[in-house]
Please model this.
Amino acid sequence: MLDTIILNLTSILPEVIVTATLCVVLLVHLFDRKNIQLMTMLTVAGLLAAFYVLSGTVGANSTAFSGMLSVDPFAHFFKIVIVLATIVVALMSRTSDEVNAERATIGEYYFLLLTMALGMMFMVGASNLLMMYLTLEMSSLSSYVASGFTRKAKDSSEASLKYLIYGAFSSGVMLYGISIVYGLTGTLDLNGINTVLQQGSSSPLALLVATIFILVGFGYKISAVPFHFWTPDVYEGAPTAVTAFLSVASKAAGFAMMMRAFKVMFIDPAATGLAEGSWALLSGIPLQHALMVLSVLTMTLGNLVALWQDNVKRMLAYSSIAQAGYMLLGLVVFGNDGFAAVMIYFAVYLFMNLGAFYAVMLVANTIKSEHVDHYKGLGKRAPLLAVALSVFLVSLTGLPPTAGFIGKWMIFLSLINAKMIGIAIVGVLNSVVSLYYYVRIIRNMFLREDQSGETAPLQFSIDQKMLLLFLLIPTLYFGLFFDQLVQFAQMSVQMFGMR
Amino acid sequence: MTITLTHFLLISAVLFTLGLYAVLTRRNAIMVLMGVELILNSANINFLAFSRFGGMDIEGQMAAIFVIILAAAEAAVALAIVLNIYKRFNTVNVDEISFLKD
Model:
């Protein structure tokens, strides 16, 4: 018994390390309350150790805890994305004025950050419906608190209440859906459900309703329209570092969970006559059409509403809704190509979106504003920051030679290979619309003069510049040298127990 | 009259609908959260009923226990957030707490 537990624990060593780190952070916080440097160092050290272990276990393919968790290349890829995002956000928070204003509880902030990361790392491996629900709640519960972390700010409190209400409601609906699936199949294990469903469902209507209910939970986590209502408010109200984390890591974990659930539960392994690397869904589940509608709605609404936003953070919130729409396109393909494209997109999205939020945070730190008009003249006052922000925004639009182009290109390519030209065109048109609001910020920074007559250059410390460069360089690098990234993603599509 | 699986499912469906109704119509944050609790418990009844009457294994009952624990944890976090809201805004009416708008 003890042997199996230890064996299982070693296969989830990165998670164990993160758990240990968060305990240490909480303990140190008791004795040394206001030491921001120490907290950051501990957090980053723990995460680097987890990252080191992850980089040494590429290709592992097994399950742990009697099939509750999968430790496969697919989960591994997303764990790397999540750990990297957590490291960047921990470093971001160190220089964030909003977070540092709560100096007395700074240890709790890093504790919450690590709990969120831990929940997400479990989410990407969960291969049992109960485990999925529990890990989703684990990351959500700490996200509610983290988004309301700056307790003195009204915006932040409001953000946390709205997040809580939408989150608790959506995951409750998801749980009801899970209970119906349990009733229909008699098991909560994803592979087991698949085995039962292959024999034909006794009640297709109930299964359809249950699938929609479960989709509500996933949709909330990845902020897909029409479950996106919390996103703009929470992203605007939460501290920028937390927003950045939610927009990248939380979305990545939600996507990974959704991809695994749909692939393992609903795929028909007996289907024949398929092209290499593509799968057929079990009959009676119109999942592909549902995802297609969801994806088109998500990117169109995200992009159109973003056009009217004057607050840059809120604009980026709608932009991240639209980005979720593009990623959903990769799911619609239902093949290894599409899934790999989504994973590549996340790898580049990590750098460009964190970078954009970091630039916005640095501006808010110095000029105390997130309004797009106050970005006028920043090209002269803070050249490095303005150039970096422009690159991130161009990358989010998906123009070459940035990494964002590769992400979008792979997704559209997989759609075209699957002969879904129509929906690919919708995606491209959406990118054109998004160009308008991204370029609006760039135009304000470089081509418009500041009306207030403020011309003093903005000062940034050396480590702030380093972090900005750390995000900027991969955004450009992966735009030119993407072969290894693409290969790694295509290798990582493999899920445990699947062909 | 014997009580069958259908009765339990009916009760849980009614509870779920009531919870949904509470979340969508109530403006008091506490009432909304009570609606969420109803939804969670309706799922619990489903799990238990299927486990007992469906001739299935113990997995459903185990799920219900986990959900009960999680509901308690969620209530604790939720009430702390609502308390913080009350201190900041002097109200827990979700309609009045909306300064973040387009």
The mean pLDDT of chain B is 91.
